[in-house]
Design a protein that fits this description.
Blueprint (H helix, E strand, L loop, with lengths): L6 H17 L2 H8 L4 H13 L17 H13 L6 H15 L2 H13 L4 E4 L2 H4 L5 E5 L2 E9 L7 E5 L4 E5 L5 E6 L8 E10 L1 E2 L4 H37 L1 E2 L2 E2 L4 H30 L1 H30 L10 H13 L4 H11 L4
Parallel strand pairs: 1-4
Antiparallel strand pairs: 2-3, 3-7, 4-5, 5-8, 6-7, 9-10
Helix pairs in contact: 1-3, 1-4, 4-8, 4-9, 5-6, 5-8, 8-9, 8-10, 8-11, 9-10, 10-11, 10-12
Length: 359
């Protein structure tokens, strides 16, 4: 049995990576962080051309019928290049929600629109994990009221998939009674929103909303772990390259034992994470009994390893690591935001313990 990626999977990740090398280069990311919204639109257009919206959509609805592993490989490339978009994670969660909780007619309508690029979904499921005081949604017939916080994929979304806890609902971004507030987070490469709704018309998905939300969260956590994996890998590479170029006492600092140990420790901690993330993504489609557990393990472990590598890579760079010149802080903060989105490591580990009957 072969436990690596297939040739097609490798080609998929490489093609996305090559696109992002120029479409999400550091100067463009810096511009986005300073308020230039054009990059999000350009990235969206490029990802559409690459077929990313088709990856998780079943073939009968116009998609490619691939799995969460392929989506995770794309998300890893996104994290590696700190691409200013939540598109892949939000899109994947929305598709999973429709696949799990939508009726056949709703799947046909919405998945077809997602595959064709007519609909872009943001997602808000934070309240299903642990909402802030005053947050949460209530449904009265087909009218939705309340607040949804930390909504992902907000940049170019035409619709939002939200949850009341028991149901999944879809609302149009331009619906009457919906107002949005941009949230300030440490991560300037992705935008998140608070949505306030007052009797907003919505479409309720007809299937099991609780199961749909649980599956969305599992997949979202895996993709955030993949994003952190890509970001951490880039920070490691940057630290190694810098240690070869930076000289002290007429020697590259990479020749000093202390720096060698720091780089080796980062590599030793990161390399096993790759198989963990790949398996967690594979399990979402093929090992139902383990899907929730391994998504928790991948999310919580990458949160800790990513934090370690972000800190250590910055230390290897010395004072330069804290400047905007190298832009290292974009990867650092991306990893920090991923650590908390859809549940911090402590909360997610507690959830994993409950799944195994330990708490």
């Amino acid at each position: 049995m072969y436990f690596g990626l297939s040739e097609d999977q490798t080609m998929l990740q490489d093609s996305v990576g090559r696109f992002l090398e120029t479409a999400s280069e550091l100067e463009l990311v810096r511009g986005f962080a300073e308020g230039d919204a054009a990059l999000a639109s350009n990235l969206q257009h490029g990802l559409m051309e690459l077929g990313v919206p088709l990856v998780l959509v079943p073939e009968e609805y116009g998609g490619l019928g691939m799995g969460v592993l392929e989506a995770a490989l794309i998300q890893e490339a996104m994290g590696r290049h700190v691409a200013p978009t939540s598109f892949t994670a939000a899109y994947a969660m929305a598709v999973i929600g429709l696949r799990e909780a939508g009726s056949e007619q709703q799947k046909s309508d919405w998945l077809g629109q997602i595959a064709g690029g007519q609909t872009l979904m943001g997602v808000g499921v934070t309240e299903a994990i642990g909402g802030r005081e005053g947050a949460g949604l209530t449904l009265d017939g087909d009218k939705l009221s309340g607040r949804a916080s930390f909504v992902l994929g907000a940049d170019l979304a035409t619709h939002f998939m939200l949850t009341t806890g028991a149901e999944l609902v879809i609302v149009a971004r331009d619906a009457t009674g919906l107002s949005e507030t941009a949230l300030t987070t440490i991560d300037k490469t992705r935008n998140v929103l608070n949505l306030d709704l007052d009797g907003v018309a919505c479409e309720v998905l007809h299937g099991d909303g609780k199961t749909g939300v649980a599956r969305m969260i599992d997949v979202g956590r895996v993709l955030l772990a993949a994003d952190s994996l890509g970001a951490a890998n880039m920070m490691l590479e940057k630290a190694v390259d810098y240690s070869k170029d930076r000289e002290q006492f007429n020697r590259p600092i990479g020749s000093f034992q202390a720096v060698k140990h720091m780089c080796a420790e980062m590599a030793a901690k990161l390399e096993p994470c790759r198989s963990l993330v790949w398996y967690a993504a594979y399990a979402q489609d093929h090992v139902d009994d383990e899907a929730a557990l391994v998504s928790c393990l991948a999310k919580s472990h990458l949160a800790e390893v990513g934090k370690y590598i972000a800190r250590t890579s910055t230390e290897v760079h010395g004072g330069m690591g804290f400047t905007d010149l190298l832009g290292l802080h974009y990867w650092f903060k991306r990893i920090g935001a991923n650590r908390q989105l859809l549940g911090g490591p402590e909360a997610v580990r507690e959830e994993a313990a409950k799944l195994q009957g330990w708490a």
